[in-house]
Specification:
Layout: E1 2-7, H1 11-20, E2 26-29, H2 38-41, E3 46-47, H3 53-66, H4 73-92, E4 99-100, E5 103-104, E6 106-107, E7 117-118, H5 125-138, E8 143-146, E9 149-157, E10 160-168, E11 173-183, H6 204-212, E12 216-217, E13 222-229, H7 241-245, E14 249-252, H8 271-282, E15 293-296, H9 305-308, H10 310-318, E16 327-337, E17 340-342, E18 354-356, E19 361-362, H11 375-396, H12 418-439, H13 445-469, H14 473-494, E20 517-521, E21 527-531, E22 550-554
Parallel strand pairs: 1-2, 1-11, 2-8, 11-18, 17-19
Antiparallel strand pairs: 3-7, 4-5, 6-7, 9-10, 9-22, 10-11, 12-17, 12-20, 13-16, 14-15, 15-16, 20-21
Bound molecules: succinic acid (SIN).
Length: 563
């Protein structure tokens, strides 16, 4: 039994743990080593308005504009107002942002009206913040880490989440009871074949939340970063928007810039606009096969590119490319989930005892298109807010009761079941390709219905493997990917318009009646388009005490079974 369980050790999880440690014992659980998260790979920086009221107002406006009519203004106001204090804390905790003497350096990225993005070690901002936060968290006597543990189920006591079932790499199961549980499990880029996200980003937290009765919102809003390195057979390594912030151009195969024709901000237009323009340009003049698009920094003067972008330069050098010498082949890739588990402004979901923060959560702050470098800020601000709410709410709820069978164990079947694992891997491969084709940058009803049918088959295949491998990590991740894909497809089918990251060839215009209307997806597969005011609604039944027994809601419920 711990007081607080935090699933995930990216920026939101670690920041939450720091506050929670003031109120009780905290266990932070990570699926791999503690640094392996989307936070670790965030390059460009953290957007923050540290220059007073007008700076904050302009950060708010840029956030609202990028979000294309779906941002919750109250959430965005919290983000930009509380951001500076949270970043001051980071500085106090030893985060080394890049400076010129005493002055913090700031860069600009897409859709920002001014340079307000702090960065660290050039292009390794997330890694530096993660390092600093982990270092202070490790020194807190109330915080413990459990690495290489997969959360495969939430423990329920009637309608309340009272902990999680964790499994280690050998498959040993442990039930950890907690007074409040935070999902900080990050995004789900791994549902697409082309993604900048690491392998751990499979959307596990979304499945856990759905099975516990939480609601997902805006799942159709997946951001595609315009510039991932595009070399066949090489992972889609992120090439930070800060490259364009420092002057890189996008050019077509003939070496011509094309963003001039598309948007007044050219290469620094909002991400969704740049990404779609790249796809369109690659098929210009009726080409059947896409032509190449390149990032060109060769004419940039006045900065030492290898010093400013050391991580990117190192990765490119492994592929015999240099920013100052070569045009770098790029294409868009799935990058960030704007939707997620519906929360109020303090990270509460509609399920008692369950909270969410960071990329897995949808506070409404990003709307239809996240402003560049607002994600690390969101993790900080809403991680801290969720922790406060967890401390307050858990005071009012009875302490979860231990049951004798709470640590009962099953074997981690797939470790010794090579054939089942191979079949699961093949199903996942098919799913990722299907999602890229059917629910990627350009969507339409026909392709999405095809995707829906293909997903049914993939789901049946995964369910048929379940008997022999239902408790493995790969099986847990496969079920999460299936449910996230289903949610994304269903929400994308339901939103018959183009807005922000969600672009439909068959509905290319915005529908003004859908402004501030959000898709709401529930575990039974239904989607409702509901107005924004419903967003902050939480339904918590605090009358439910320990009368009922603890149930184990398994991820297997994705295929219709609850054990
Ligand atoms: C980047 O460096 O381009 C990514 C930062 C972000 O996702 O906002």
């Amino acid at each position: 039994m711990v007081d607080f369980l935090v699933l995930g050790a990216g920026i939101a999880g670690l920041r939450a743990a720091m506050t929670l440690a003031e109120h009780g014992r905290v266990l932070v659980v990570t699926k791999e080593a503690r640094w392996e998260s989307n936070t670790h790979y965030a390059q460009g920086g953290i957007a923050v308005a540290m220059g007073g009221a007008s700076d904050v107002a302009s950060h708010l406006q840029d956030t609202l504009d990028a979000g294309d009519g779906l941002v919750d203004r109250a959430a965005a106001e919290i983000l930009v107002r509380e951001g500076p204090e949270r970043v001051d804390e980071l500085l106090k905790w030893g985060t080394h942002f890049d400076r010129n003497g005493e002055t913090l350096l700031r860069t600009r990225e897409g859709a920002h009206s001014v340079a307000r993005i702090l960065h660290a070690n050039g292009d390794a901002t997330g890694a530096e913040i993660g390092r600093a936060l982990a270092a202070v968290a490790q020194s807190e006597k109330n915080i413990e880490f459990a690495e290489w543990m997969t959360a495969c189920a939430l423990l329920m006591d009637d309608q309340r989440v009272v902990g999680a079932e964790l499994r280690d790499a050998e498959g040993r199961s442990q039930h950890v009871l907690s007074r409040a549980t935070l999902l900080a499990t990050g995004g789900a880029g791994q549902v697409f074949s082309e993604t900048t996200n690491p392998a751990v980003a499979t959307g596990d937290g979304l499945l856990l939340a759905l099975r516990a009765g939480a609601v997902l919102v805006d799942m159709e809003m997946y951001q595609f970063h315009p510039t991932a390195l595009s070399i066949p057979g090489v992972p889609r390594f992120l090439l930070s928007e800060a490259l364009r912030g420092e002057g890189a151009h996008l050019v077509n195969a003939a070496g011509k810039r094309f963003m001039e024709r598309v948007h007044p901000l050219m290469e620094l237009a909002p991400r969704d606009i740049v990404a779609r323009a790249m796809v369109k340009e690659s098929f210009a003049d009726g080409a059947k096969q896409p032509g190449k698009i390149f990032l060109d920094m060769r004419s940039v003067r006045g900065i030492q590119l290898t010093e400013r972008f050391p991580g990117i330069s190192r990765f490119l050098a492994e592929h015999r490319l240099r920013l100052d010498r070569d045009r770098i082949p790029v294409s868009p890739a799935a990058h960030y989930m704007m939707g997620g588990v519906k929360t109020d402004l303090c990270g509460r979901t509609n399920v008692a005892g369950l909270f969410a923060a960071g990329e897995v959560a949808a506070t409404g702050v990003h709307g239809a298109n996240r402003l560049a470098s607002n994600s690390l800020l969101e993790g900080l601000v809403f991680g801290a807010r969720a922790a406060k709410a967890m401390a307050i709410d858990s005071e009012q709820l009875p302490i979860p009761k231990t049951r004798e069978d709470a640590s009962s164990s099953q074997q981690w079947m797939a470790v010794s079941n090579v054939e089942a694992n191979e079949r699961l891997e093949a199903a996942i491969h098919a799913l990722r390709g299907m999602m890229w084709r059917c629910a990627g940058l350009l969507r339409d009803a026909e392709r999405m219905h095809e995707g829906r049918e293909a997903l049914k088959k993939i789901s049946e295949e995964v369910c048929s493997i379940q008997n022999s491998a239902s408790t493995s990590r790969v099986a847990t991740e496969a079920r999460a990917r299936i449910e996230v894909s289903r949610a994304l497809l269903e929400c994308a089918i339901a939103r018959c318009e183009s807005r922000g990251a969600h672009y439909r060839n068959d509905f290319p215009q915005k529908n003004s009646t859908l402004e501030r209307i959000h898709t709401h997806y529930r575990a039974d597969g239904t989607v409702k388009l509901e107005c924004f005011d419903a967003f902050a609604e939480v339904h918590r039944d605090e009358e439910n005490d320990s009368k009922s027994s603890i149930q184990r809601m398994t991820a297997g419920a994705a295929c219709g079974s609850v054990s």
